[in-house]
Amino acid sequence: MKDAILAHLRYGLGKDASHSSVYDWRMALSHALRDRAVDHWIPSTQTTYARKAKRVYYLSMEFLIGRLVEDMAANLGATEEARAALAELGQDFDTLVRDEPDAALGNGGLGRLAACFMDSLATLGIPAMGYGIRYEHGLFEQDFVDGQQIEKPETWLSQKHAWEFERPEVQYSITFGGHVEHHDGRAHWHPHETVFATAHDTPVIGWQGRWGNTLRLWSAQPVKIFDLASFNRGDYLAASRSEALARTICRVLYPDDTTETGKELRLKQEYFFTAASIQDLIRRFLVTHDDIRRLDEAAAIQLNDTHPAIAGPELVRLLVDVHGLGMGEAIDLARRCLGYTNHTLLPEALERWPEWLFGRVLPRHLEIIREIEATQQAEFAGSPRILDHGNVQMGELAFIMAHKVNGVSALHTDLVKQTLFSDLHRIHPTRIINQTNGITPRRWLHTCNPALSGLITGAIGDGWVADLEQLKALKGKTGDAAFLSDFMAAKRHNKERLSNWVQQTLGQSIDPDAMFDVQIKRIHEYKRQHMNILETIALWNEMKANPGAGWQPRVKIFGGKAAPGYHVAKEIIHLINDVATVINNDPATKDLLQIVYPPNYNVTMAEMLIPAADLSEQISTAGKEASGTGNMKFALNGALTIGTLDGANVEIREHVGAENFFLFGLTAQEIMEARKQPGFARATIEKSPRMQRVLQQIAEGRFSPGDASRYHGFVGNLWDHDYFCVSLDFDNYYDTQRRADEAFGHRDAWAAMALTNTAGMGWFSSDRTIQGYARDIWDVGPADAKTLEKTG
Ligand SMILES: *Cc1c(COP(=O)(O)O)cnc(C)c1O
């Protein structure tokens, strides 16, 4: 390892050890680790080709990866060796780890799920490729100025990405626009714009290096890099015009995963990466097979939400226009290859494109969608339409072109059947299935929480890392006082680590003995961060009114970004920061109640906050959170959940036991009913003096001195609309928080409940989720059991 690092430093970076920066050392370490990754990766690919094994193609607009050094070293079993080698070279492993920028090619849960799935596919030895976009600028960086979010462009690629291999030879033409002619019994698409898609490959190595898969991200290149004629005329801008246009396609990640921008560029991005991926997988198939009609035997294509739903028409287009299949046959074959994962019921998040826009960018695909529509209507008269009121509905398209459609938690899947796709479900009663989300235990316990991970391994061995159900064995320890004390010592260690970080980065002192109550996720009204901050104000009021009531000290920790155009979400951020300014500086309560909101929540921050949490806030309006995965990370790391019966909370509660979960709030069904009453919010708030008082304080400018009207719109909206039903759950939420206080006061009982959470979370490994997809959707398995034995 030491030699490898020095060799990379010298020959890869052209540096000698005495003149190397932290960046140089990190790159050298990364490349030394990458070499080892390659030694697992290439044999995996060879085996897959040799056995003509079926591959999974996971198409996702987002991969929220985070850092890779620590993860890669851990999966390769090389962490200690790297640490020791670096120490001999006078370098500190952890310092190098911290130097790596997050690869933030995603917004939140959906992108993080894709990253967890890649880890599990490799760990399970299932041949797979993740396909996405190599955004030049990932998710924006968040900062706070006067309590308000400002966005700065993110520049993860300003330093070289240590893990990727650029593949200039893997390049496809992606075309847009123009018109279609029909002659010789064929369609001929004459596009007016072409860009190249170029592959960038990152090896993804599973636990203990058993297997290696590929994350292939596409960047856009101009067909003509440079117009020399314009340049020679002195028109330098025109000379690089085509380059600039092509580059815009992979320039930025759209910073919003719940509303559609309606931008042509977004449609182009979706088609760009999907078309490149489909061309790539067909080319690969034809290397080892000669009958394209058997594509489904070698390729399972999974669509992570509707963003890549154009895969259906694109595959049909290639099968018909290039490979000469009949339309009906092509549609059937495409359907056998495709699966679609639905992630949301929120109507504003369902992708729809105006037909005129769609037809202008993808004229041939619009024709094919009409054929798909006609085939569907011929077979199932009255079926819901893909083309409706002048729109192309991507949800219906994805559903009709997939042989399986899955929801991401039991409750969400039921609601997909009952509401979103009820008519299609009646026609295709076996198509919708459930695959409850999961998280990779490698990143979300083993590496992010060494204190707890070490304790667990000491007690039950390290088999749990690749077989998380083994955590069940910890249930036997919930009555073991010595073990519980070690368990709480690990938590305490993580809380101190976080407290130190908060002190250093925010200059704020927090008490590691207080309850750490954490809500970190995208800021969205349905996730109800505003309910949390209103409850915080109510608690503060109560503390001031009854100073002698023996209050449990609390630190309320928030983290999360708002989409730049989402006004209410930004108001919620502003309010949290305003309330923090007042409450944190109140001498009467500052030792009892603190609010911490570090800017720029990302994967790396999650890895520090989650192990330090006592209480996990999962308080969405029932029926709105499809699954959640943050909820799983917390419970796995020994936090108790305060939550509604929403998404995977329902299943988490079943697995950890109702007595170890702070449940409150209306059910999805009750919410749907209550919301029908006009004026429900006003009527409810009038009956809650506690909520009324809080709203009045906000409206009077208690938290915005000198700007009393700042939150008038916000407060008025709660009284008059309250679409996300904060009013309906508020009092119950407040009371349940006090039950949590009470429980936290009994530290031994709390420790047993927390350990029961960890012990019960084994089912939520993304390894289990991927096994479900492999069995129920993809019909794939590990490529080569013997290889697994040999290298494992
Ligand atoms: C897990 C994760 C999410 C998803 O969190 P939810 O609470 O499920 O919304 C979002 N962002 C990051 C950085 C994550 O690690």
Automatic annotation (TrEMBL):
CDD domains: GT35_Glycogen_Phosphorylase (cd04300). It catalyses: [(1->4)-alpha-D-glucosyl](n) + phosphate = [(1->4)-alpha-D-glucosyl](n-1) + alpha-D-glucose 1-phosphate. It comes from the Bacteria. Its EC number is 2.4.1.1. Signal peptide: none annotated. It is an enzyme of class 2 (transferase). Pfam families: Phosphorylase. SUPFAM superfamilies: UDP-Glycosyltransferase/glycogen phosphorylase. GO terms for molecular function: 1,4-alpha-oligoglucan phosphorylase activity. Its cofactor is pyridoxal 5'-phosphate. InterPro entries: Glycg_phsphrylas, Glyco_trans_35, Pyridoxal_P_attach_site. Keywords: Carbohydrate metabolism, Glycosyltransferase, Pyridoxal phosphate, Transferase. Belongs to the glycogen phosphorylase family. Phosphorylase is an important allosteric enzyme in carbohydrate metabolism. Enzymes from different sources differ in their regulatory mechanisms and in their natural substrates. However, all known phosphorylases share catalytic and structural properties. NCBIfam families: P_ylase. This is Alpha-1,4 glucan phosphorylase. It comes from Ponticoccus alexandrii. The gene is glgP.
